[in-house]
C-alpha cells in the first residue's frame, strides 16, 4: 500500500475523531479531572499563604501534586477511560462497521484513532500542566527569576514532556485492551495497580513499567515511603525512546487485533 495514501487516510480519521472529542459530553469527567488543580491553584493565587514560601518548597509541592494526582491518577485514569473506548464505544454504539467496511487498512484506522486520542489528551493535560506550573509559582516574588534565570523553564519542559509521553504510552495500552476485552475496566484496574506501586517492585520489574521511565524524566523525585526500592533512573534519551517504543508496539498490536475483529453487534 502507498505510504503517502496511508498517512493521508490516518490524518483524515484523526481529524474526524478529534471533532468528536470536542463535541462529546461523555468526556466531561476527563475535563473536570484535568482542570480541578487549575481551579484550586487559582484560589491559592488570590489568597496566597502567609509568608513567602521558598522556591524549593514550591518546587517540592508541585512535584508532589503532579506525580500523585496529575500523573498517577488524572492522566492514567483519563487514558483508561478514553482509549479503552476508542473501539469498544463504537461497538456499543453500533457504528464500528462504518470504519471496518471502508476501503482503509485496519492498521491505518487504529493509527488514526490513536493519534486523535493522543492529541486530545496531550492538549488537555499539557495545557493544565502548563497552567498549574505557572500558577503555583505565581505566589513567589522570585517567579520571573526562577523561569528566566533559573531552572524553571527546564522543569516545565520536562513536566510537559512527561505528560505527552504518558498519554502516548498508556493510551496505546488501553486501546489494545479495548479491542481485546469486552470489559476493559478490569485491565485499567490491573495496569493501574502495577503502575501505581511500581516503586516497591524489584529493579528488573520496575523497568517493565511505564512509570519508571516517566519518573526518570521528572526533575524532582518525591519521597515514596519506607517500602520503596530505590534504583538509578534510566538515561533521559533512552527513557523517551523506550516509552515511544512501547507506544508504537501496542499500536501495532492494536492494528493486528483489529484485523481479526468481526462485526457482531448481537454478541454485545
Largest sheet: none
Helical amount among residues, as a percent range? over 70%
Give unreliable regions as ranges.
none
How many strands in all? 0
Number of helices: 12
Short synopsis of the structure:
The chain is mainly alpha-helical and 268 residues long. 74% of the residues lie in helices and 0% in strands. The protein has one domain (3-45, 52-267).
Describe this entry's structure for a reader.
The mean pLDDT is 85. The relative contact order is 0.14. This protein has one domain. Helix 3 (55-83) packs antiparallel against helix 6 (106-137) and helix 8 packs parallel to helix 12. The two termini are 33 Å apart. The protein is mostly helical. The protein has helices spanning 3-23, 28-46, 55-83, 85-92, 96-100, 106-137, 143-148, 152-180, 185-196, 203-206, 210-217, 236-259.
Characteristics:
268 residues, mainly alpha, 12 helices, globular
Task: Show the helix and strand layout.
Elements: H1 3-23, H2 28-46, H3 55-83, H4 85-92, H5 96-100, H6 106-137, H7 143-148, H8 152-180, H9 185-196, H10 203-206, H11 210-217, H12 236-259
Helix pairs in contact: 1-6, 2-3, 2-6, 3-6, 3-8, 3-9, 6-8, 6-12, 8-11, 8-12, 11-12
Amino acid at each position: 500500500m502507498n505510504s503517502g495514501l496511508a498517512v493521508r487516510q490516518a490524518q483524515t480519521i484523526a481529524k474526524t475523531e478529534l471533532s468528536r472529542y470536542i463535541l462529546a459530553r461523555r468526556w466531561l469527567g476527563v475535563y473536570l479531572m484535568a482542570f480541578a488543580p487549575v481551579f484550586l491553584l487559582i484560589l491559592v493565587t488570590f489568597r496566597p499563604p502567609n509568608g513567602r514560601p521558598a522556591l524549593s518548597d514550591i518546587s517540592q509541592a508541585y512535584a508532589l501534586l503532579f506525580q500523585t494526582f496529575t500523573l498517577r491518577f488524572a492522566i492514567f485514569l483519563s487514558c483508561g477511560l478514553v482509549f479503552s473506548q476508542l473501539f469498544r464505544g463504537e461497538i456499543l454504539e453500533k457504528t464500528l462497521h462504518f470504519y471496518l467496511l471502508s476501503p482503509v487498512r485496519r492498521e491505518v484506522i487504529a493509527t488514526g484513532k490513536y493519534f486523535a486520542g493522543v492529541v486530545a489528551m496531550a492538549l488537555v493535560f499539557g495545557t493544565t500542566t502548563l497552567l498549574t506550573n505557572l500558577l503555583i509559582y505565581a505566589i513567589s516574588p522570585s517567579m520571573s527569576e526562577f523561569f528566566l534565570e533559573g531552572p524553571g523553564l527546564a522543569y516545565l519542559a520536562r513536566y510537559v514532556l512527561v505528560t505527552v509521553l504518558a498519554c502516548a504510552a498508556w493510551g496505546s495500552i488501553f486501546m489494545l485492551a479495548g479491542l481485546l476485552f469486552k470489559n476493559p475496566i478490569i485491565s485499567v484496574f490491573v495496569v493501574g495497580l502495577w503502575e501505581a506501586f511500581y516503586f516497591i517492585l524489584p529493579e528488573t520489574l520496575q523497568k517493565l513499567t511505564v512509570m519508571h521511565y516517566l519518573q526518570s524524566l521528572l526533575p524532582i523525585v518525591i519521597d515514596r515511603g519506607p517500602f520503596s526500592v530505590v534504583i538509578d533512573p534510566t538515561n533521559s534519551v533512552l527513557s523517551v525512546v523506550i516509552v515511544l517504543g512501547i507506544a508504537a508496539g501496542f499500536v501495532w498490536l492494536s492494528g493486528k487485533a483489529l484485523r481479526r475483529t468481526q462485526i457482531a453487534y448481537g454478541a454485545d
